Every structure is written in structure tokens, then in C-alpha cells.
């Protein structure tokens, strides 16, 4: 494990003049706030843009599950498609897996299987708008509501087992918010995630644009993290070019529960779990007392 110096970008210095800020605000007004809000949800989630196919070997191990509930957010019935990987041991811990943007759940089968091999029973879900779940344009509130419904399913079906939450990328932000709102979580694991969506946007190519006040899907994990009481493992690849490691480190620093930051040398946004598998297993043992 290697300590990482924190060098977050200076958003104030990069912010343009008030004239440009006014121009952007005027543009948003011309577009109509509702349509602008819908457009940013499309940009953020990119639901269905990258459907991934699981191999026959992968599919043979997965059991389909369906989670049905009525949404308080929309007032409509919701049907979430999920994959379940049952653990070999009846006393094994169970884990809710939350994927990120763009790819549906089939793109996360390899991560789910790896966690399963580490000793967890694993439930992975597709949010509304992804895979075979209820068609919809996702929003921050909707995906967090979906995650909570999945957690309630896991509690009903496996209430006697220690229950963990794992989130990758955008799923990490969903996991942080869920863990901040529930008391029966044994541990939180996030990989390649960030402090907030506005701060993440600020590190990107167009981060100099003054759009921060217009971002409605904020995923403010920095505000939520101090509320998490469960032990925390933050995993980040040193070569992650999509979400800078400094953002993961900054989120880690805000946690008040027992915690560990794992910087995987050479890991990117997509392969840190492979390169750092041995380190993750050791961290699970040391932080959570789990013998993988």
C-alpha cells in the first residue's frame, strides 16, 4: 500500500469570468431547465450505451432474481433484474454489488465472480434504464432508491448473514449514499470512485466551464461519507485516467469509521480489481476479518 499525495485541482483558479458564467446560465435558460436536466442524466448514466454479453461459462453460474416494489420517487411499479451468486457456505457473508455508468450488469460479471471467489454471496442489480430492468431515464434519486430496494431484498433473504455493500465508479457514489442511510451494513467497499460529480467534472477536459451550479445529479459522496459508520475500504488504481486517484483519496480522508486506502500500482479504471486482487484479499482480512 502506498500513500498518495493529495493534489486536487483548484476549481476557483480555473473558473472563467462572470460573463461566461452568465452566458452558460442564459444558454441553459434557453434550452429549458427541464430538458437540460434530462440531458445531463443521459450524459451521466449513458444507460444501455454499452450492453455487455456474459460468456456461457459466466451465465451458467448466475441465478436470475427479480426485485419488485413501488417507487416513492415516481409512484410507479418497478421491476429490477438482478444476478445472484450463492456462496458455498451457509454462514458466508453476502454483498450487494452496484455497477457504474454505461455498461449494464453483464459487464460486471467478472467483478461479481471475483467477489464470489473471495467468499461472498453476491447480489448484483441493474438500475432502472439498464439491462432488463424497468425502462426509464435514471436519476440520482432513482438509482439510490433501486439500491435500497435491493438491500431490503438481501436483508429479507439473508438477514442472518453479515451484509456488505460494494460499488465501482458511479456505483461507488450510490454505495456511499446507501451506506450513510442504513445501520445494518457490516462494511463498505468502493473502487475507482469520487468525492462528488461537480468535482469529478472539474478534473475533465471541459471542467473549466462554469456548469457546477447547473449540475442536479451531484452524487455528493464527500458530504455523505462522514455519516457512514461501517468500516470502509477504498480501492483505486494509480493509473486511473477517468477518475483521478486523488479524488478517491480525498473521499477516504473524510471517513470517520475504521478505514483503509488501497492504491493499486498500475491499475486503471477497469482492471484495478484484477491487478490488485491479492492486496484486496489481504485488506478484507485485516479490515473486516474475512478470510477469503
**Widest beta sheet: strand line-up:** 1-2-4-3-5-6-7-8
Summarize model confidence as the mean pLDDT: 88
Radius of gyration: 19 Å
Helix content: 25-40%
Q: Specify the overall morphology.
A: globular
Largest sheet: 8 strands, mixed
Q: What share of residues are in beta strands?
A: 15-25%
Assembly form of the protein: single chain
Provide a count of the helices. Answer: 12
Query: H/E order of the elements?
Result: HHHHEEEHEHEHEHHEHEHH
Q: What is the terminal separation in angstroms?
A: 19 Å
- Find the structural class using helix and strand composition: alpha/beta
Summarize the structure.
The chain has twelve helices and eight strands. The protein is of the alpha/beta class and 292 residues long. The radius of gyration is 19 Å and the shape is globular.
Which features would summarize this protein structure in a list?
8-stranded mixed beta sheet; 292 residues; 38% helix
Q: How would you describe this structure to a colleague?
A:
This protein has 292 residues and is an alpha/beta fold. The protein is built from twelve helices and eight strands. The chain has helices spanning 11-14, 18-31, 33-45, 56-61, 109-117, 140-157, 170-181, 197-202, 221-224, 245-253, 272-275, 277-288; strands at 63-70, 77-85, 94-98, 121-125, 163-168, 187-191, 232-237, 259-264. It has an eight-stranded mixed beta sheet with strand order 1-2-4-3-5-6-7-8, sandwiched between helices. Helix 2 packs across helix 3 (33-45). Mean pLDDT is 88; it is low at 1-18.
Amino acid at each position: 500500500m502506498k500513500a498518495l499525495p493529495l493534489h486536487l485541482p483548484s476549481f476557483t483558479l480555473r473558473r472563467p469570468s462572470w460573463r461566461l458564467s452568465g452566458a452558460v446560465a442564459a444558454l441553459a435558460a434557453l434550452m429549458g431547465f427541464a430538458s437540460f436536466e434530462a440531458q445531463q442524466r443521459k450524459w451521466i448514466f449513458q444507460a444501455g450505451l454499452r450492453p455487455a454479453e456474459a460468456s456461457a461459462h459466466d451465465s451458467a453460474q448466475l441465478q436470475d432474481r427479480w426485485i419488485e416494489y413501488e417507487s416513492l420517487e415516481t409512484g410507479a411499479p418497478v421491476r429490477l433484474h438482478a444476478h445472484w451468486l450463492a456462496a458455498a457456505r451457509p454462514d458466508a457473508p453476502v454483498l450487494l454489488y452496484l455497477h457504474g455508468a454505461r455498461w449494464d450488469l453483464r459487464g460486471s460479471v467478472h467483478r461479481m465472480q471475483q467477489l464470489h471467489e473471495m467468499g461472498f454471496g453476491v447480489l448484483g442489480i441493474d438500475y432502472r434504464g439498464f439491462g432488463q430492468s424497468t425502462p426509464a431515464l435514471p436519476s440520482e434519486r432513482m438509482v439510490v432508491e433501486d439500491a435500497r430496494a435491493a438491500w431490503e431484498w438481501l436483508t429479507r433473504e439473508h438477514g442472518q448473514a453479515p451484509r456488505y455493500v460494494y460499488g465501482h465508479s458511479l456505483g461507488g457514489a450510490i454505495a456511499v449514499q446507501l451506506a450513510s442511510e442504513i445501520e445494518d451494513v457490516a462494511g463498505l467497499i468502493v473502487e475507482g470512485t469520487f468525492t462528488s460529480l461537480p468535482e469529478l467534472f472539474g478534473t475533465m477536459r471541459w471542467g473549466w466551464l462554469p456548469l457546477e451550479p447547473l449540475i442536479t445529479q451531484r452524487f455528493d459522496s464527500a458530504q455523505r461519507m462522514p455519516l457512514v459508520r461501517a468500516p470502509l475500504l477504498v480501492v483505486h488504481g494509480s493509473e486511473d485516467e477517468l477518475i483521478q486517484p486523488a479524488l478517491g483519496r480525498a473521499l477516504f480522508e473524510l471517513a470517520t469509521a475504521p478505514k483503509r486506502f488501497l492504491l493499486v500500482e498500475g491499475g486503471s479504471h477497469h482492471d484495478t480489481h484484477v491487478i490488485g486482487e491479492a492486496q484486496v484479499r489481504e485488506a478484507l482480512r485485516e479490515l473486516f476479518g474475512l478470510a477469503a
